[in-house]
Structure formats: structure tokens, C-alpha cells
Amino acid sequence: MSSNVYVEAQMLIRKPIEDVFEAFINPEVTTNFWFTKSTGKLEEGKTITWEWEMYGVKNVVKVHQIIPNQLIKTEWGEPSVNVDYEFKKMEKGTLVTIKSYGFAQTGEELLRQVNDNTGGFTTVLDGCKAYLEHGINLRLIEDKFPSK
């Protein structure tokens, strides 16, 4: 039984919606601000693997739905959680909202998961903004948990 708790992070990225959407489905762009390796582009009905080589972590991502320049619905993690990426055209660019929900955890474990998701997706959006607007890879994900 999953809880009805959900996490939401959002950011205005001052770029056209097509560019911002592409940044999330095309690993050649996404690897500049999130994971380091991917088995492919996000496509509806496909299952791909994202890898964070510096942490030795992999995640299998199931792509449930894609509406170009509007929505990407995925499911990933262990235990799995739903993660939706919503794109909305705004006056000054594109508003990206990442929502994750369907958590299996409860109590302290759920709080930890919500905290990790909130922080993690905020970091992803900050990195995406820096990369798309200024061409800078801030190495945020890599530096979030330095090993030495």
C-alpha cells in the first residue's frame, strides 16, 4: 500500500520549452547535469538504465508516457516510485515541475525518502538551469556526496 504523500520541486528555466524538454529525454544533454551514463533516450514504453558512475549506482527507469514538450511519466527506484516531469511554457521560459509519488515507505523511512527526493530533484533542476542558461556544468550531483 503506497502513501498519498508526494514530493514536488520546480524551477523556471529561461529557455524555449523544446530545449528544456529535450534536456530531460536526451542523455547527451542530461549527463551534463544529472546522471553520468544512460542506455538510451527516454521513449514511451521503453525501459532504460541511468548510471551515476562516481557512486557506483544504477537505476532502471520505466517510461510510461511522453507528451512532447508537456509531460514525461516514469517509474524508478527500489522500491519503485512514480516520477513525473511537467513542462509549462511561461513568459520568460519554461517551468519544469518534478513530482514523485507512490512511496512504499512509512514513518521515519518515508520522511527520509521525501527529504532525499526533494533535495535531489531541486539539485537536478538547479544544475539543469545552470547548464541550459549558461552552459556551465556545476557538478552538483557529483559533489553532493564526496567520498574523500
Structure description:
The termini are far apart. This protein has helices spanning 17-25, 27-30, 107-134, 140-144; strands spanning 6-13, 37-38, 47-52, 57-67, 71-76, 81-90, 93-101. The chain contains 4 helices and 7 strands. The longest helix has 28 residues, at 107-134. A 7-stranded antiparallel beta sheet has the order 1-7-6-5-4-3-2, covered by helices on one side. 24% of the residues are buried. It has a single domain, classed as 2-Layer Sandwich (Alpha-D-Glucose-1,6-Bisphosphate, Chain A, domain 4). With 148 residues, it is α+β, with helices and mostly antiparallel strands. The protein is globular and about 40 Å long.
| Tally of individual helices | 4
Helical content class: 25-40%
Structural class of the helix and strand makeup? alpha+beta
C-alpha end-to-end distance? 39 Å
Q: How many beta-strand runs?
A: 7
**How many separate domains make up the residues?**
1
CATH architecture: 2-Layer Sandwich
CATH domain fold name: Alpha-D-Glucose-1,6-Bisphosphate, Chain A, domain 4
How would you summarize what this structure contains?
With 148 residues, this protein is of the alpha+beta class. It contains 4 helices and 7 strands, in the order E-H-H-E-E-E-E-E-E-H-H. The chain has a single domain, classed as START domain (Alpha-D-Glucose-1,6-Bisphosphate, Chain A, domain 4, 2-Layer Sandwich).
Q: Topology, please?
A:
Blueprint: E1 6-13, H1 17-25, H2 27-30, E2 37-38, E3 47-52, E4 57-67, E5 71-76, E6 81-90, E7 93-101, H3 107-134, H4 140-144
Antiparallel strand pairs: 1-7, 2-3, 3-4, 4-5, 5-6, 6-7
